[in-house]
Amino acid sequence: MPVEEIMNSGKEKMEKAIGTLKKSFASVRTGRANPLILEKVTVDYYGAPTPLRQMAQVTVQEGTTLVIAPFDKSILKEVEKAIIKADLGITPNSDGIVVRLPFPPLTTDKRKEIAKDVKKLGEEAKVAIRNIRRDMTDDVKKAEKAENLPEDAVKDAQDSIQKLTDKYTKTVEDLCAEKEKEVLTI
What we know:
By secondary structure, the chain is an alpha+beta fold. Helices cover about 60% and strands about 15% of the residues. It has helices at about 5-25, 50-55, 75-85, 110-145, 150-185, and strands at about 40-45, 50, 55-60, 65-70, 95, 100. Helix 1 runs parallel beside helix 5 and helix 4 (about 110-145) runs antiparallel to helix 5. About 20% of the residues are buried. The model has no long low-confidence stretch (mean pLDDT about 85).
């Protein structure tokens, strides 16, 4: 495998690791209501598990409440059950037309706990990036043997891999700092 291919493949994988981290951060609870917290909620709709966001309109009301208005009002009870089953830590309230999810203000202890979770997610992303770096380095060593690459080319490839790793690790750190700030801000 040529060095350029190894670099492109590694960069793509690191981008996916960042994307996964961003997706994980979207479902982390902050003091504000965020419709993305419902991404993992699936409703049993006539026997088929269906994502909640495909079968209801979700709006934010007053910054602290999510209002879920199902397109089919007959599934209101199923929507409530699905939210409870998803274990979001929020109890749904139904008025027969819509389901409301009130987000209570977070305590300082809860904010610190969530900030620790954010750091843990960031660390997992860094580990994934380091694993990708290791795989890329291994691929370069295999290419060196298979294609008789000159030492300079191998050294340059390893330097490029390290620079790429540093860039994505910095991105993870920036994303974590931003999310922690968001969580800790009252």
